[in-house]
């Protein structure tokens, strides 16, 4: 039994790696099907907000450049599929963490029964996914997130994954950004009607700053997604206990 569990874990790990680092779409379909077969986990709904946050961060970093919109759009175009893959994987990790966390599922179930009857729980599609109007639920969610944050400070699992992913998949694209930027040519009549390139090429230092900002913002966004997905998993498991 232990061997079977280890083999299943290794299979999950391999599928996630191939999807993340090799862009193997078949792996994520297999992974989702396994989750569905294992525990009927079907409510996987990432919002894919990370790339929007990255684009906003880049525009802010380059706010003094006239071509900031062009550069931010180009970076978004270059890395959005990579970032979406990372977001989906982290969402899945977080959701499973919450869904199988019996400690917090039991605590939330106990709190839920203070506010809803069994019949009411049975009828609900959402529990406290977004509803924090009850003080005890709001406090509970904050305690749940604090535990996750404490764990991340100790093992840095998500931070290390984000850094490894960015170093292997995203870094080269940012380092070669000058090659991807579409430069506009304009006629300069003040100097013998010469044609010059509009916009300034990025130095190595500039590219390093852009890359560093992307990694930092990605970790911040991805970690929030992990915590939110974990909370959704806890809520869905409580509902699952009262479904047919």
Please characterize this protein's 3D structure.
With 244 residues, this protein is mainly α. It folds into two domains: 1-42, no CATH class; 49-241, no CATH class. Helix content is 73%, strand content 4%. Strands 1-2 form a two-stranded antiparallel sheet. A hairpin with a 5-residue loop joins strand 1 (184-188) and strand 2 (194-198). Helix 1 runs antiparallel to helix 2 (25-39), helix 5 (102-112) runs antiparallel to helix 7 and helix 8 crosses helix 10 (204-241). Residues 134-161 form a coiled coil. Keywords: Coiled coil.
Percent range for helical residues?
Answer: over 70%
Instruction: Note the main sheet.
Output: 2 strands, antiparallel
Instruction: Label the overall shape.
Output: elongated
Please work out how many helical segments DSSP would assign. Answer: 10
Give the C-alpha Rg. Answer: 23 Å
Kindly list the characteristics that best describe this protein.
244 residues, mainly alpha, two-stranded antiparallel ribbon
Condensed summary:
This protein is mainly α.
Mind sketching the topology for me?
Layout lengths: L1 H21 L2 H15 L10 H12 L6 H32 L2 H11 L5 H6 L11 H21 L1 H19 L1 H4 L3 E5 L5 E5 L5 H38 L3
Antiparallel strand pairs: 1-2
Helix pairs in contact: 1-2, 3-4, 3-10, 4-8, 4-10, 5-7, 5-10, 8-10
